[in-house]
Design goal:
By secondary structure, this protein is an alpha+beta fold. 30% of the residues lie in helices and 36% in strands. It contains two helices and three strands, in the order ααβββ. A three-stranded antiparallel beta sheet has the order 1-2-3, with no helix packed on it.
C-alpha cells in the first residue's frame, strides 16, 4: 500500500478484492493531490470545495485543465 497508515485504506484492503482495492487505492492517491477546504458547516451538514488540475487524458480534453467540485456530506447517525 502507498499509504500504509491510513485507516480507510487498511479497511478497504480487508473488505475489497485485490483487484477492487488496487482501483480504490489509485483513486485515493490521485485525489490526494487536490486541495480542499470546508465551504460550509451547519450541524451535521458539511460542504467542501475541491480544486485541482486534471490531466488532458480525462474526457475529451487534450490539455490539462483546472476544476472545482463541491461535495456535500451529512454525518448524522
Amino acid at each position: 500500500m502507498v499509504f500504509g497508515s491510513v485507516d480507510l485504506l487498511n479497511h478497504a484492503a480487508i473488505m475489497y478484492t485485490t483487484e477492487a482495492f488496487v482501483l480504490f487505492e489509485k483513486e485515493f492517491v490521485d485525489g490526494a493531490r487536490y486541495k480542499y477546504k470546508m465551504a460550509k458547516s451547519v450541524s451535521c451538514d458539511k460542504r467542501f470545495e475541491i480544486r485541482g488540475v486534471r490531466s488532458g487524458s480525462e474526457g475529451h480534453r487534450e490539455e490539462p485543465y483546472e476544476f472545482k467540485q463541491v461535495v456535500s456530506f451529512n454525518n448524522e447517525q
